[in-house]
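thought: fold this chain, then report.
action: predict
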Amino acid sequence: MISLTGLRKVYPGRGGQQVVALDGIDLDVPRGGVHGIVGESGAGKSTLIRCLTALEQPTSGTVAIDGVALSGLGERELRRQRRRIGMVFQHVNLLDGRTAAQNVAYPLRVAGASRGERAERVRELLDLVGLAGRGDAYPSQLSGGQKQRVGIARALAAEPAVLLCDEPTSALDSDTTRQILGLIRDVRDRLGLTVLIITHEMGVVREVCDSVTLLDRGRVAQSGSIAEVAGDHGSRLARALVSLPPEPAAAGRVTLEVSFAGEVPTGRVLAAVAAVEDVDVSSGTIETLAGRRVGRLRVVVPSATAADAAARLRAVGVHVEEVA
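observation:
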């Protein structure tokens, strides 16, 4: 559904230097998938969204939605293709002087829908996002979560095939975040949408995404399904998905990080850890991501026996690294 091939975006910089924002991005998101894009500030996430919505033309490479390349389209056809992409913003960007219903109706009015068509579609969408009966409320009368629900309804007004969400929960508390992510997942399931979420919150990826891509200085550093990424034990994404707080070991002792996935029985791992001489488990988590059991433990052992302990643990099929 979403296909990026060799996507490159270069901006002119000072002194004739070039700033490479995107450097050869290849990415495919299948129809009906929820894909997360993560990365630090400056990784290229915002530029990627602007290229996906054709607000920026790539320097080279292609952006295609359902097999239609956006580059080179005429103005009329480009407008039509843009209507297939719904956009949910971090700060919602509702029109304060319009009611919730009027905000949702706005893109329909721009598209030329009749008054009756707009009224029926707005009613359906407000009901879909859980705001039936709140159509007459102004943004100032709505909570942060309710505003984002209006934003989602507005993004769905033109019946898009793709929903782009730019940091959709970063301004919300944890309970409201879970509700909004649940709504995004429900909308995907009910409408068959393809969803792309730009976020810096790994909790969002864990909660709702089927797959994830890590951008680093304009390049794809890692990409895959949640199960694949979580099983790549030493990778940055795996550590972020199944994270533990840093805990320095005392003098004369070494911290080992033990990672494992569904193919290694949890009981076998715990038994192997317990059998290590003079071991302390400093922290750990065992959970299920995308239907796959994954775990990460930090164990502290004497420096003199650390190599032997690591070898014994690896023998049961786990990944072991010494934590600096």
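thought: worth noting. The chain has a mean pLDDT of 94.
final: tokens above.
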